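Thread: quick sanity check before group meeting

JM: Hey all, I'm pulling together slides for Thursday and realized we never actually wrote out the predicted structure for the chain we discussed last week. Dropping the sequence here so it's in one place. If anyone has concerns about the input, flag it before I start.
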Amino acid sequence: MHWRIKGTVQKVLGYVPGGDVLHFHLQRQFGGLQNFRRELESKVEDWTIMAHHLRNAGLVFRGLRGFEIGSGWYPTFPIACYLAGVERLITYDLTRHMRADLTLACVEALEGSLQTIADAAGTDLEGVQARYQQLRKRMQAGEDVQSASDGVIVYRAPADATRTDLPDDSVDVVFSNSVLEHVPGEVITAMYRESMRILAPGGVMFHSVNCGDHYAYVDRKVHQLHYLRFSDAEWKRWNNAFLYQNRLRAHYFVDEAREMGFDIVLDTSTTRPERLAQLQAMNVHPQFAHYAPEQLCITSVDFIARKVA
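JM (edit): ok, ran it. Output follows.
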């Protein structure tokens, strides 16, 4: 599909009544939800990467208090955290997207990933299996994920991650996966400020940011640096309610956390030769001219920022 077609369709759906429902059904038929199992496997892989990074930073899943920004259609990360033995996992979404049918499908499909979850979390497989059996049985009986997890997983939407009702110093980790690239810069700053408030001393933020042009996933004729050709005014034509992209570069997310007072303990941003070659072969809009090419061409970053004890 040509990227402009997708952008136009999503732009229109963002304005018409019931556009969100129609957008979901289009995602099921033609988009990322078309192959549910493949997408779920990708999310499990992302979770295991996060789990390894958190363990390397000294966090232990058993008894962990977590806060997720951006729940999505179904809560893969919160469920995996629950199976790993967290004490509580609160997940916020600005819009209420989570669906009971997809959440149950997620739980049922995770049966094949229990060993992977146990290994990544560094916990015993028997405990993961016991929690899984309880969760699946109760959800198959009609309970929602919060009830079936005995209140360990808490879903709140619509909810604002810049102004939570959580007490000071009440969570050990704040995390997101492929969310911050869809959030305006000033909102990211507000999220970081709120994270600093609710994190316990020594607690961390983990964010995985996919800051490349997402239209490249549907149009093979463009690559992930493609959107740097346009000015903000031009790009506004293609930004929409369902695929807003802030076009902020990887170092921004890390630098903003550092300026907020966090100690950066992980930064995976890497300049890849193929991206640098793509950048050198294209016309970049002058508004990006102040960036070094090595910064401009980075399209993903995982980072951990610790609240100094």
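AS: nice. Residues 185 and 204 are 20 Å apart (CA to CA). The chain has one domain: 35-306.
JM: adding both to the slides.
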